[in-house]
Amino acid sequence: MDKILNTRQKLEIREHEILSPYAAFSDMSQGRDVEEEQCDIRPVYQRDRDRILHSKAFRRLKHKTQVFLAPEGDHYRTRLTHTLEVSQIARTIAKALRLNEDLTEAIALGHDLGHTPFGHAGERALNDVCPGGFKHYLQSIRVVELLENHGKGLNLTKEVRDGIRNHQMSTIPSTLEGKIVKLSDKIAYIHHDTDDAIRGGIIREEDIPKEYKDVLGYSLVERLNTVIHDIINCSEGKNDIFMSPEIEKAMLSLREFMFSSVYTNKKAKGQEEQAVILVQQLFEYYQKHLELLPKEYYVLMEQLNEPPHQVVCDYIAGMTDRYAVAKFKELMIPSAWSIY
Q1: Are the C-beta atoms of 61 and 112 separated by less than 8 Å?
Q2: pTM of the complete model
Q3: Which superfamily is assigned to 37-269 in CATH?
Q4: Residue 158 CA: distances (Å) to CA of 42, 103, 146, 163
């Protein structure tokens, strides 16, 4: 009698029928650090995607800064909307190249889980005061391996964790799906930060150098379409993900323009120094008052023997912007002054 296959097994067979031979197949995953019984419906990468989506760290992204601190208006990006835009771009490319969309989405949704409050200003603040430094992509791994689920982590597959760990510029993911997310992250923030900067009056569309627009396009939509089409056309049927030299040069030049015109612009970044001071003072305060840490963090020191400075860093990195501000007011400002 033929063996009756469950839904997951049918989906795994379908992957081999429709995906590229260069795709990361779910049934060929290197697995999890802790073995688990397989889900009868979802392949492993889909299951990882769901775990990330339902995590507390993911929900907190909606109140974390992307670029602009406390912008006036409802349409500026947050760390959550950035993550969703990365996921959308990455899935579009993965689907066109017949790669594993579930793995791509899981990496994209998890890539910034370890980001601090106040964007890169918060990351810079913790990097300066935390022994050993602080990098958000490594903190994202710490979130999924340890901090979520009451110190047990999410037990994600090695491929998803590899993509999260290696989404920054200096390293290379081991899967094509991870490489797609790495590129999509850059594409997303360059283009949506341009949109936000124009909305905020930091730059005008006319300020973007013509030589970049001649290559990439004269609007946000045109530039996105150009870059995405270029990656698909260059990478189709190949065991790599890359852009044409002309498009890549123009995009990197646009990135340099954004750094000089927006990311270091005093109007856009005028409050970053206050954010850095706030984060660092919170770090110093909790270092001296470990007993004030929430119980779940205190347990990390007691049961898992984590160093106190690392646990304080974990707590602050997990804060949203508004929670960090509220804690600062609670701890640093005398209650009698709060009426003023």
Answers
A1: yes
A2: 0.94
A3: Hypothetical protein af1432 (1.10.3210.10)
A4: 17, 11, 14, 9
